[in-house]
Amino acid sequence: MMRRRTTLLTGCTALALALGATACGGGPVSAGGGDKALDGQTVTVAGVWSGSEQKNFQKVLDAFTEKTGAKTQFVSTGDNVSTVVGSKIEGGNAPDVVMVPQVGVLQQFAKKGWLKPLSPAAQKTISADYAPVWKKYGSVDGTLYGLYFKAAHKSTVWYSPEAFTQAGVKPPKSYDELLKAGHTVSDSGLAAFAVAGQDGWTLTDWFENIYLSQAGPEKYDALAAHKLKWSDPSVVEALTTLGKLFKDKQLIAGGQKEALNTDFPGSVEKVFGPKAEAGMVYEGDFVAGVAHDQFGKAIGKDANFFPFPAVGGGTAPVVSGGDAAVVLKDAKNAKAGMKLLEYLATPEAAAVWAKAGGFLSPNKKLDLAQYGDDVTRATAKSLVDAGDTVRFDMSDQAPAAFGGTKGTGEWKLLQDFLRDPSDPKATAAKLEAAAAKAYQD
What we know:
Elements: H1 11-19, E1 42-47, H2 51-68, E2 71-76, H3 81-90, E3 97-100, H4 103-111, E4 115-116, H5 120-129, H6 132-137, E5 139-140, E6 143-144, E7 147-153, E8 156-159, H7 161-167, H8 175-187, E9 191-193, H9 200-215, H10 217-224, H11 233-246, H12 255-259, H13 264-272, E10 278-282, H14 287-295, E11 304-307, E12 319-328, H15 334-344, H16 347-356, H17 374-385, E13 391-392, H18 394-397, H19 400-403, H20 409-419, H21 424-440
Parallel strand pairs: 1-2, 1-3, 9-10, 12-13
Antiparallel strand pairs: 3-12, 4-12, 5-6, 7-12, 8-10, 8-11
Helix pairs in contact: 2-16, 7-8, 9-10, 9-11, 9-20, 11-21, 13-14, 20-21
């Protein structure tokens, strides 16, 4: 799908259209109309973000406050969103809005009856301004509960242009070329890849890109829904492909043992930090934020990316992730919370974080010019242009016990596989046993 560049509506006009306001300056208007209609109210928001992400999201919340008069309070939950939010609900202290980072958690919340369906105004905006796939991932049993405000492009491989120039390699077009280029980089004095094995979620992303390209979107969807068993030969094949990388000590900085002791920020540091140890790091577009903010790299010059290459005879994958805004039904100020969500659906809200950096929006109406650099514009365009061929992070679609919990399920089993990738079939069987239990529960 080709993306049509649009000009951002500004001020009252944009929000009146997006939020269903009746007028600007006269009569009642909904959130964002600039009339301070929510003055004196406070909206509490819970999400996983911390550090620079939390600071940048606060800029969006501040813009909402400027428009509506509503104060906001953000609570960082850490990785275990479902546990933290569940305890707050049980304690009678539910936040108004939760930024849910996993489809599986959104589905879990909906099935427990915790979520409020989105307002007609929000639904109308999402239908008009987002590819249908984002509506699908925000819905449970045909009811739309979640707005995907922040997206991630998880099919990007980040590299040091200096390392590539030194090795005499160019960005590869296939997985086999990727491994070949990696050996060439290694021969020039650096390891090929920094792998963040300490964080199990990064390993799930490796698997998902390979599986989507190698097995195709239909099997990807079936595996994500556990309609296809993890012991299926297609899973064994993808693990075998991934194992070629994992077991090659020439390709991984410090080998498997060091990879298992390297977290995500550490993997970026090994490529873009003061003492480079590797030429490439695979992860989402958010690598750029770490490379720039922590190590001062100029994106596009000192750090660049190429699309995750096609595997076998498949097409290049586009795997995404994202944070969906939902409103809790039992929240003390759910009505104002829904107004915040309606604001987040506008290109104006997305533009606030786009200008700050470290952000992608699936909103088709956000002008690419709002992004701060050409590399981010390229990743954003790739994500939006992919339309309904985008597939959401598979582990994020699974129950949290299988796809989203440290030390258990898919995260742990893929860490075990990184430690010893010699038996893909046995790993597939263990994954199936863990998945079967999680989906049953």
